Amino acid sequence: MRVTYLLAALVALTAISPAVWALDADQVRGGWETAADAGAHVLEFSIRGTQVTGIYCTVCDDATTLALVEGTLRDRQLSFQIEHVRDDGSVAARDRVSARIEGDHLVVDGTAAGAGGHAFHWIMRKDQRGPAPFGGVKVAEALPQPGAPAVNVAAYGAHGQALPARGLQLAGATPWAQPGPWEPLSAAKLAGVWLTGTGPGKQYFIIRRAGERLFGLVCGPCDNAYDMAALTHFSIEGDTLRFDIAHEDNGIGSLPFYNQITARLTRNELRLISIVPDNQPPNARRGGGVSLLGPLPYAATASGAGG
Questions:
Q1: Are 95 and 82 a contacting pair, CB within 8 Å?
Q2: pLDDT at 284
């Protein structure tokens, strides 16, 4: 009789959805946000193997809210910390957090650092609008994740959308005149908010320090977690900056992928060139470039600062 009960229990366990027992990177990578009535919280995960990096923010074009995410992905759970930093890169607080998929939502539980160490519980979702067009190209392909907007599900591929045969052409491809010599770079010189474009659609490149490391976010508009990407793998050599833009849950290319960026600074223009996805041939986007203006102090973008 005991053997019969044991077999029945095993059968019942195997009938439970595999998502209860295993958490796949593709389920959780990319951007998640809380519902409007739960307060503003956004998480953007970049996942390679078991290593998790990314960013946390509230009002994401308010650079003062940007914090660093680091953690690991195991079979059943995503465990990470949210490292809140001061403008000089020193650590202000570290929140301990875990997350899991339940149905169409990411359920997040954590303990905030600091006095009191209060617990928090967020029910997060994918933005139901789906990813916005980029450079005139409709980004209708994304990973078929829990909670992905139904309007785009029919168009989703398993790995995303192929780059057009001639590559994505940036608008206004007129010759660029360099306003001065390239300047030597440092983490302190790069930290801040860099902008390109105007109006609601302008792009924010937010670069923050965590100790001597740099991390960041690109978004614009910054109210849709699909339209955000973490900036990672920063390195500085003389007058040259290199970093990656991590496309995790949507983009023009096989997902996930990095856009590999080389940048140099001249007279408050940070010139981004060699925008080459790591899943495309080296010449796929050769010749493209865009200039960012800055850096603005973080406080200039704070809510209520008029930025």
A1: yes
A2: 56
pLDDT given at position 5: 46
Q: What is the DSSP string of the chain?
A: -HHHHHHHHHHHHHHS-GGGT---HHHH-EEEEE-GGG---EEEEEEETTEEEEEEESSTT-GGG-EEEEEEE-SS-EEEEEEEE-TTS-EEEEEEEEEEEETTEEEEEEE--STT--EEEEEEE--TT-PPPBTTB----B---TT--HHHHTT--SSEEPPPTT-PPPS--PPPPP-S------HHHH-EEEEES-GGGPEEEEEEEETTEEEEEEESS-S-GGGEEEEEEEEEETTEEEEEEEE-SB-BEESSEEEEEEEEEETTEEEEEEEEETTS-TTTTTT-EEEEEEEEPGGGGSTTTT-
Q: Does residue 99 carry a pLDDT above 90?
A: yes
Residue 26, number of CB atoms within 10 A of its CB:
17
Kindly report the average pLDDT of the chain as a whole number. 82
CB 302 within 8 A of CB 62: yes
Q: What length does the chain have?
A: 307
**62 token code pair:** 């308010």
Q: What is the dihedral of CA 240, 245, 246, 248, to 10 degrees?
A: -160
For residue 68, pLDDT beyond 80: yes
The mean pLDDT value for 290-299 works out to 96
Q: Parallel, antiparallel, or unpaired for β 228-237 and 105-111?
A: unpaired
For the ranges 3-12, 82-91, 200-209, which has the lowest average pLDDT? Answer: 3-12
Tokens of 190: 């790069």
Each residue of 113-130: b (16+ CB within 10 Å) or e?
A: beeeeeeeebebbbbeeb
Average pLDDT on 158-164 reads 48
Q: Which of 61-70, 110-119, 166-175, 193-202 has the lowest mean pLDDT?
A: 166-175
